[in-house]
Amino acid sequence: MSKLRLGALDEEKPVKLSVELGGALMRDLRAYAEVHAKLTGLAAPLPAERLVPAMVERFIAGDREFSKQRRRG
Fold first, then answer.
1. The predicted structure's pLDDT at residue 30
2. Interval 50-66: pLDDT, tens
3. 47, 55 in Cβ contact below 8 A?
4. What is the mean pLDDT of the chain?
5. pTM higher than 0.85, yes or no?
6. Which residue has the higher pLDDT, 6 or 45?
7. I need a labelling partner for 69 at 20 to 30 A (CA). Which of 3, 8, 9, 19 fits?
8. What is the pLDDT at residue 52?
9. How far is 36 from 46, CA to CA, in rounded Å?
10. CB-count burial class (<10 Å; 0-12, 13-18, 19+) for 15
11. CA 55 – CA 64 distance, rounded (Å)
12. Rounded to an integer, what distance in angstroms lies between the CA atom of residue 32 and that of residue 39?
């Protein structure tokens, strides 16, 4: 069927995005932020709310099937 990384989602017009993350994912995000800060020379790790949008953006940018379907219109 679909090669997209995400399956079908309900279409709703969002006004604001609020996300609940599980404890394990939040711990992973904090650990990622620490590694990211160390590798990029930041004095302190970025908070999750700064990391998540960039991660989602990169996820979408790297999804080849999405890019292909988007070009097709």
1. 94
2. 888 888 888 998 999 99
3. no
4. 83
5. no
6. 45
7. 19
8. 84
9. 8
10. exposed
11. 16
12. 10
Residue 72 contacts residue 66 (beta carbons within 8 Å) = no
Q: Contact, 28 vs 48, CB < 8 A? A: no
Structure tokens that stand for 2 in this block: 């679909």
Residue the block writes with tokens 């020379």: 41
User: In which band, very low, low, confident or very high, does the pLDDT at 4 lie, cut at 50, 70 and 90?
Assistant: low
By C-alpha distance, which of 16, 56, 19 is closest to 66? 56
Identity of the residue numbered 2: S
CB neighbour burial string for 20-31, b if at least 16 within 10 angstroms, e if fewer: eeeeeeeeebee
DSSP string, 11-54: ----S-------HHHHHHHHHHHHHHHHHHT-SSPPPHHHHHHH
Residues 6+ apart with CB under 8 A from 37: 43, 44, 45, 46
